[in-house]
Amino acid sequence: MSDFHKDILTGAVFVTGLLGFVSGEYVISSALFASSAIASNINANRKRNKNSNLSCE
C-alpha cells in the first residue's frame, strides 16, 4: 500500500471517529481516534526512518 493510500485511510478513520463523536457514540469514536493516532505515528516514523540511517540511539 502506498503512502498516499495509508494517509487516505488514516484520514477516513479520523473523520469516521469525528462523525461518531458528534452522533454520541463516544466509545467507538475514542477507539477510532486512538487507532488513527497510532496509525499516523507509525506512518510518520516509517517515513522518517526511511530517509535517515538506522542508529543505536
Element order: H for helix, E for strand: HH
Principal-axis shape: elongated
**End-to-end CA span:** 29 Å
Provide the helix percentage.
over 70%
Q: Provide the low-confidence segments as ranges.
A: none
Based on secondary structure, the structural category is mainly alpha
The number of E-state strands comes to: 0
Main sheet makeup: none
Number of helices, where a helix is a run of at least 4 consecutive DSSP H or I residues: 2
**Strand percentage:** under 5%
Average of per-residue pLDDT values: 82
Radius of gyration: 14 Å
Summarize the structure.
With 57 residues, this protein is mainly α.
SSE blueprint:
Layout: H1 3-23, H2 26-51
Give an overview in words:
With 57 residues, this protein is mainly alpha-helical. Helix content is 82%, strand content 0%. Helix 1 runs antiparallel to helix 2. The radius of gyration is 14 Å and the shape is elongated. 5% of the residues are buried.
